[in-house]
Amino acid sequence: MDASAGMGARGALVPEAASQAADVVVRAIDVHKRFGRLEVLKGIDLEVARGAVVCIIGPSGSGKSTFLRCVNHLEKIDAGRIEVNGHLIGYRERNGKLVEDSEKSIARQRAEIGIVFQRFNLFPHKTALENIIEAPVHVRGVPRKEALVGAEALLDRVGLADKRDVYPGKLSGGQQQRVAIARALAMNPTLMLFDEATSALDPEMIGEVLDVMKVLAREGMTMIVVTHEMGFAREAADRIAMMDDGRIVEMGRPEEFFADPKEERSRQFLSKILA
Amino acid sequence: MLASVDWHVVWERLFHPDEIFLRALLTTVYIAVAAQVLGVVLGLAAALMRMSRIAPLRWLSGFYVLIFRGTPLLVQIFFVYYGVNLLFGFALIPTTVNFGLFTMDGAVFAGILALGLNEGAYMREIIRAGIDAIDKGQMEAARSLGMRQGLAMRRIVLPQAARVIVPPLGNEFNAMIKNTSLVFTIGVYEMFSDAEIHYSQTFQPVEFFGAVAIWYLVLTSVWTVIQAAIERKLAASERADELTLWERMVEAWTPVQAWARGAR
Question: Does A184 touch chain B (CB under 8 A)?
Fold first, then answer.
């Protein structure tokens, strides 16, 4: 795997990397991903500083969601490396090569990273409150009573305190997604991933979910947000990453990116989506 | 024609069963429940093995289903009861099995084992289909929260799969109740044996086989009612506002209680 070659070169930069480690939450280096013969990620480099919000935009099939899913190892990567809080995700280094990590340590890493899915994926056989305490109680071993207190506070934060004993089937899409955000936050993640969190919602429900995400961003949560909501990207993002055909073609601050995109591909995409 | 039927015998078999019959009935129920439980456990293990990353486990699971679904149940019962001890060269199935707390007749044990092994092969397919029916996003969500495969399976996927599994499982148990009659052939004294012995002494097939058929019908009917209650209970969590059977009963009794208090 050609990641090992790149690593040697970066080994020389260790002192500097270590001093930055506290500030960088996500560091992706030359990430490649292939589905069979189709290469969907062709070398992604991305750094996300603590407290930063990066919005990944781009056309369907550009690899945005795939990259996001690589960050918590829901997808394996074929080359490159991804670090979260300085720890290699999903792999261990053995004799300069990367081998897949044990299930146990992958699970432990995932517990630190919250992800919100396009289709919510709430547990339908559990109430809103039970959804939220499930992982704290059964993964972290938090006492149930303690977890319930935390869960109620989280439900309150996403504006659903009155829905604590309701099953997901009885909630609207927007409410379900807010419960899903609360469920991810219950594990006190250091990083939140949003995989087109509003794409499956009716238009009138998009706002309530985006509002919760904006509050999170303001409170200093480190976030990677794959989205088609340009309004949100413009308002909440610190940086925009424009992806196309498995690559990040342009990266910039939202005010610059939206006002004056440098790349032709970005201009085309924006003119289509903002038309 | 019907006049030749001794209705009194049928009546007696149904409404004044002797103690020997009741014990035979208990044996039937006992074998059916034990074999079904064994079948579910084996089926679950085989289903999980089939989804395993370890190839030999998948092969073993496939081989198991091939054998037990591909050969007659009666042959399996005879093979287990008469063949297994000879095959292994020692009494794997002794005349009396001692479980510490209780002992079990060797033939009953062999019958449960054979019926359970056979059932497990069918249950594997039912359980696998139940697990497959659950959206892949559920497993992903569970794992993204830091759950390991086993925990996610136990806490998230299987409870949801149970709802899909229960209706076909109910049909399997219905068949199991009736299939227990086959262990009569290895000398277990269960309901059918009881009928057969009475028949051989009296040559009244209509009366005794008719009566035992009705008893089987009673057992399967009772099970149908229980199954419906279980399905309602499993469905209750999804239709959150609908009352469970218990809540319905409480609800139904509340006005009666209020009325009784007022009357006093």
Answer: yes
What distance in Å separates the CA atoms of residue A154 and residue A135, rounded to the nearest whole number? 14
d(CA B78, CA A42): 62
Q: Is the pLDDT of residue A7 over 60?
A: no
Phi, psi of A142 (to 5 degrees): -70, 135
The interface predicted TM-score of the complex, written ipTM, equals 0.87
Could you tell me the CA-to-CA distances from A149 to A68, A163, B58, B261 in Å, in that order?
A: 31, 15, 44, 40
Kindly indicate the confidence band of residue A97, based on its pLDDT and cuts at 50, 70 and 90.
Answer: confident
Residue A60's φ and ψ, nearest 5 degrees, are -60, 145
Locate the DSSP E strands across A96-246.
97-100, 113-116, 191-195, 223-226, 239-244
Whether residue A22 is predicted with pLDDT greater than 90 in this model: the reply is no
- The strand pair at A239-244 and A223-226 is best described as unpaired
Contact state of A107 with B160 under an 8 Å Cβ cutoff: no
When pLDDT is averaged across residues A109-127 and rounded to a whole number, the result is: 95
Q: Compute the distance between CA of residue A82 and CA of residue A104 in angstroms, rounded to an integer.
A: 18
The pair of three-digit structure tokens given for residue B38, joined into one six-digit string = 């064994």
pLDDT digits (tens, 9 = 90+) for B152-197: 999 999 999 988 898 899 999 999 999 999 999 999 999 999 999 9
Please give the pLDDT value at position B1. Answer: 56
CB-count exposure of residue B166 (10 Å: 0-12, 13-18, 19+): middle
The number of C-beta contacts closer than 8 angstroms across A and B is: 74
Give pTM, 2 decimals.
Answer: 0.81
| Residue B263 banded pLDDT, cuts 50, 70, 90 | very low
For B33, residues 6+ apart whose C-beta sits below 8 A from its C-beta are none
Q: CA-CA distance, A118 to A206, in Å (whole number)? A: 12
Top residue of A74, A101, A110, A117 to mutate, by most chain B CBs within 10 Å, is A110
A21 inside 8 A of chain B by CB? no
pLDDT of residue B95: 78
pLDDT band at B257 (very low <50, low <70, confident <90, very high): low
Q: How far apart are CA B69 and CA B58, in angstroms?
A: 16
Residues of chain B contacting A139 with CB distance shorter than 8 Å? 145-147, 151
Instruction: Please give the pLDDT value at position A12.
Output: 39
Written as six digits, the tokens of A191 are 């990083």
The residue among A68, A116, A119, A138 with the most chain B CBs within 10 A of its CB, best to mutate, is A138
CA distances, A146 to each of A133, A143, A160, A186 (Å)? 9, 5, 19, 12
Contact B240, A166 (CB under 8 A): yes
Look at residue A239 and tell me whether its pLDDT is greater than 90: yes
Phi, psi of A170 (to 5 degrees): -100, 5
Tokens describing residue B18: 């002797």
